[in-house]
TrEMBL record:
GO terms for biological process: fatty acid beta-oxidation. The keyword Lyase applies. This is enoyl-CoA hydratase. The keyword Cell division does not apply. Its EC number is 4.2.1.17. PANTHER family: ENOYL-COA HYDRATASE, MITOCHONDRIAL, ENOYL-COA HYDRATASE-RELATED. It comes from Sphingomonas yabuuchiae.
Length: 257
């Protein structure tokens, strides 16, 4: 499939999605959202694909929601169109998604990175929620996900001042998993994705679902949820295979069941 705003490549079991609106620093417009949702739906349904990487350009992962597209919208258009609600569908992807961020990840760009399962940052990455400078607020979950990721003090300061965080601060604060030299970012993200792609797909989904539950549930309920999913995996062929392979000192052959 050809997309206007994305480049999609399959690297064996890994889907690599490159945001591709260089003229607007990958600003997220309606067309990009709709193309990205199409890719993620296909990815989730494709038994051969096991991990996805979303990246941008060396200059910008994404410089935000498309300001030119939103500028003239009024309350009724925003409210009745339930603007940005489509991004919730992105977060319903059940397979893992890594954000590989170089350059600017601002506003909706930072929010998209945070909707992914974890962020690998180039040393050039810069994160921010500068909506305050436009007279608005984050609108794609940024106030919530940033507060969860870095705590109230930094989230509040960033939202109120619009300042950016560099990669070092982002790693120190827990926003990103690791920093990688910019030149190696995509290759390292693909290597990490290939590692995940080599795991039992059912266990990958279960791990993603239960870590995400930590943000939606209290501790006791979350621990119970984890335990029940863990119990459930003992009904899978891949649990039998994974444990047998360990005992027999060989590599497992996953069957996706
Ligand atoms: C539309 C954008 C854009 C955006 C950049 N561009 N960001 N277009 N929406 N979010 C366009 C510019 O208009 C310009 O187009 C081209 O991309 C290159 O950008 P420059 O500004 O010339 O580049 P530079 O000087 O290098 O500055 C980079 C930058 C700056 C610091 C990232 O572009 C910037 O501040 N962008 C806006 C960041 C922002 O406020 N994001 C939050 C958006 S709101 P032309 O045609 O002039 O060459 C949001 C939350 C939505 O995301 C929820 C609230 C409603």
């Amino acid at each position: 499939t050809d997309y206007n705003t994305l480049i999609v490549e399959r690297r064996e079991a890994v889907t690599l999605v490159t945001l591709n609106r260089p003229q607007a620093l990958n600003a997220l417009n309606a067309e990009l959202l709709s193309e990205l949702l199409d890719v993620m739906r296909g990815y989730d349904a494709d038994l051969e694909q096991r991990c996805a990487v979303i990246t941008g350009s060396p200059k910008a992962f994404a410089a935000g929601a498309d300001i030119k597209e939103m500028q003239e919208m009024d309350f009724a258009a925003m409210y009745c169109g339930n603007h940005f609600t489509g991004w919730d569908d992105f977060t319903r992807t059940r397979k893992p998604i890594i954000a590989a961020v170089a350059g600017y990840a601002l506003g909706g760009g930072c929010e998209l990175a945070m909707m992914c399962d974890f962020i690998l940052a180039a040393d050039t990455a810069r994160f921010g929620q500068p909506e305050i400078k436009l007279g608005v607020t984050p609108g794609m979950g940024g106030s919530q996900r940033l507060a969860h990721a870095v705590g109230k003090a930094k989230a509040m300061e960033m939202c109120l001042t619009g300042r950016m965080m560099d990669a070092e601060e982002a790693e120190r604060s827990g926003l990103v998993a690791r920093i990688v030299p910019a030149a190696d970012l995509v290759e390292e993200a693909l290597r990490t994705a290939a590692t995940i792609a080599g795991m039992a797909p059912i266990a990958v989904k279960a791990n993603k679902e239960m870590v995400n539950a930590a943000f939606d549930m209290g501790l006791a309920q979350g621990v119970q949820f984890e335990r029940r999913l863990f119990h459930g995996l003992f009904g899978s062929a891949d649990q039998k295979e994974g444990m047998a392979a360990f005992v027999e000192k060989r590599s497992p052959n996953w069957t996706n069941r």
